[in-house]
UniProtKB/TrEMBL annotation:
Organism of this sequence: Thalassobellus suaedae
ABC transmembrane type-1 domain sequence ranges: 22-343
One MF term in the entry's GO annotations: ATP binding
CDD domains: ABC_6TM_MsbA_like, ABCC_MsbA
Keyword Transmembrane helix: yes
PROSITE patterns, alphabetized: ABC_TM1F, ABC_TRANSPORTER_1, ABC_TRANSPORTER_2
Subcellular localization(s) per the UniProt record: Cell membrane
Name by which UniProt lists this protein: ABC transporter ATP-binding protein
Highest taxon of source: Bacteria
Keywords from the UniProt entry: ATP-binding, Membrane, Nucleotide-binding, Transmembrane, Transmembrane helix
InterPro entries from the UniProt entry: AAA+_ATPase, ABC1_TM_dom, ABC1_TM_sf, ABC_transporter-like_ATP-bd, ABC_transporter-like_CS, P-loop_NTPase, Type_1_exporter
Organismal lineage: Bacteria, Pseudomonadati, Bacteroidota, Flavobacteriia, Flavobacteriales
Protein's membrane topology: Multi-pass membrane protein
Length: 614
């Protein structure tokens, strides 16, 4: 139930719609009950029940007993009808039929208005909730997603939020309408016959107990369905991402089998959940009919009895039966709503888990906004581990402004970790990373990253135009700025020949372009941002020789007059670096310029010997 209240918090901005919804539902419940009550005078006319209309208009008094309210209402209506019709039953029938039509019209108008306001309330909450989950997803550190399936995250943002729309938020409709319908109906039933109504109340707790027993395991079953949905969405996402490899290794059947296993489990879990839900409606309806049968038996005896103190007239009994059946619809809706709360609880819990996940990289209070880079970057005795084993151990390095420092070493030596730490995708476990003497944890993440340009091994581009991909880091850039950046990155030569130039859409992940072209666009994006510090994480290692030459020229153009941290696998790309740092198992083993390290004939020399220079 806590999750239900957490979700309802998102309804606050839509108070005016909630108020309109509540008021409309109050009138819906009121006119719904009155439309039944209005049938009584019609039945009295049809059954030719003689009712002597009072000659003086009845006046309501606060001293009237509750059990006498029905008599007062009947006398008042008889007086008004007699005044209007002059005792003509035909006219009385027309009046009552008209009254019934008006009551049903007002009831349906109120119902429409209630649903009208609910549309804005429910869709607004869903939009805000989805936006909140997405915003939190974007803000959470990379470490969170290394432990999660992408498909599971997709499932939470899409189907789980949708589940809430048809579970928790559909209950908003029931909070006012159904309880009030029951309250107004029971009030009318009590006015007609207190004894019969009290007799009916004996059976309501029994119905509630049986219904609650049926719904007890819904949350657990729903949770299994949602988790399995996350599993097969993950398989689908992996399939679409790695389709080239799947086809290349003839692994279609393998992945097809994995997907079908997951959908089969989803099939079984869904069947159990939906069949349990489907049991709710017939059960509540059967229990309701049992209640009607009891009323027929007991109320029928009251109609047939000769005792005037207990007797119930036939028209009142028929109206009472209608009112009793009128309770069934809201009672069924409430029981269905309780099931939905149970089912939606699992979805709300999964969504709330993302929203409530603390962000360890969140800016500290009064974090410093840094708008320039003035002197140096310093890695001061830093140690870091992703899980149990340290990948960097007591690493120290100073990078003066304007210098290019290259990090080399075998895979797993900790090179890319340096890039992850300087950009603060992760925080160090020990030590400090300082920019101009300020710990980067004391800076706002936004101002830190505004000082950095990143070019990764995988050129990450988006399904949009070339211009919009480049403007990611500088939204106010002009077309001329974009073209200048493309020229520096050695990319204008192919962009100018595209059908729409910089407005050309490059497809999903830039798949309409070659690897070298994508990487040059990635460099152009960093150039356009024009940050003082560049971080190049193996920017040429995935390219062929010709593409590497073009990209290397682009990199050299970009690094002019900038501080650069170059992580290199191909050593030919970093021979001109101001300093080369050789890493092995997270520690610095050699440090110096290219020629100095060659002369040492150490680790760097071995790395060079393993590669051929052109």
């Amino acid at each position: 139930m806590n999750h239900f209240y957490n979700i309802l918090k998102y309804a606050k901005p839509y108070k005016r719609f909630a108020i309109g919804h509540i008021i409309s539902n109050v009138f819906f419940a009121l006119f719904g009950t009155l439309s039944f009550v209005a049938l009584k005078p019609m039945l009295d006319v049809i059954f030719k029940k003689e009712k002597i209309a009072p000659s003086i208009k009845p006046v309501f008094s606060s001293n009237i007993e509750f059990s006498k309210l029905g008599d007062f209402a009947e006398d008042y209506l008889a007086y008004q009808m007699n005044q209007f019709t002059g005792g003509d039953n035909s006219k009385a029938l027309i009046l009552v039929v008209g009254l019934i039509i008006v009551m049903f019209l007002l009831k349906n108008i109120s119902g429409y208005l209630a649903n009208y306001f609910l549309v804005f309330l429910r869709n607004g909450v869903i939009r805000d909730l989805r936006n909140k989950v997405y915003k939190q997803t974007v803000e959470l550190p990379l470490s969170y997603f290394s432990e999660k399936r992408k498909g599971d995250i997709l499932s939470r943002v899409t189907s789980d939020v949708l589940d809430l729309q048809y579970s928790f938020l559909s209950v908003l409709e029931l909070i006012v309408r159904e309880p009030l319908t029951i309250i107004f109906t029971i009030t009318a039933m009590l006015i007609i016959s207190v004894k019969l109504t009290l007799f009916v109340f004996v059976f309501i707790p029994i119905m509630g107990f049986i219904i609650s027993k049926i719904g007890k395991s819904l949350k657990r079953k729903s949770d299994r369905v949602q988790k399995e949905q996350g599993t097969f969405l993950s398989t689908l996402e992996e399939t679409l991402t790695g389709l080239r490899i799947i086809k290349g290794f003839n692994a279609e059947e393998n992945f097809n089998g994995k997907f079908q296993e997951s959908t089969m489990r989803f099939y079984h879990f869904s069947n159990k959940l939906l069949n349990r839900q489907n049991l709710a409606s017939p059960t509540s309806e059967f229990l309701g009919i049992c209640m009607i049968a009891v009323i027929l038996w007991y109320g029928g005896n009251l109609v047939l009895t000769a005792d005037p103190n207990l007797a119930l007239d036939s028209s009142s009994f028929i109206i009472y039966m209608g009112l009793a059946y009128n309770i069934l619809t809201p009672a069924k809706a409430i029981s269905r709503g309780l099931y939905n709360i149970k089912k939606g609880g699992a979805a709300a819990e999964r969504i709330q888990e993302i929203i409530d996940t603390p962000n360890p990289l969140k800016d500290i209070d009064n974090a410093i906004v840094k708008n320039s880079f003035d002197s140096e970057i310093e890695f001061k005795n830093i140690s870091f581990k992703y899980q149990d084993e340290y990948v960097l151990k007591d690493f120290s390095l100073k990078i003066p402004k304007g210098k290019t420092v290259a990090l080399v070493g075998q895979s797993g030596s900790g090179k890319s970790t340096i890039a992850n730490l300087i950009t603060r995708f992760y925080d160090v476990n020990k030590g400090n990373i300082l920019i101009d003497g300020i710990d980067i944890r004391d800076l706002t993440t936004s101002s830190l990253r505004s000082q950095l340009g990143i070019v990764t091994q995988d050129a990450i581009l988006f399904n949009d135009s070339i211009k919009n991909n480049l403007k990611l880091g500088k939204e106010n850039a002009t077309d001329e700025d974009v073209i200048d950046a493309l020229k520096i990155a050695n990319a204008w030569e192919f962009v100018k020949d595209l059908p729409k130039g910089i407005e050309t859409n490059i497809g999903d992940s830039g798949n309409k372009l070659s690897g070298g072209q994508k990487q040059r666009l990635s460099i152009a994006r960093a150039v356009l941002k024009s940050p003082p510090i560049m971080v190049l994480d193996e920017a040429t290692s995935a390219l062929d020789t010709e593409s590497e030459r073009l990209v290397q020229v682009a990199l050299e153009n970009m690094m002019k007059n900038r501080t650069s941290i170059v992580i290199a696998h191909r050593l030919s790309t970093i021979q001109n670096a101001d300093e080369i740092v050789v890493l092995n198992k997270g520690e610095i083993v050699e440090q110096g310029k290219h020629n100095e390290l060659i002369d040492k004939k150490g680790v760097y020399q071995k790395l060079v010997d393993m590669q051929s220079f052109e």
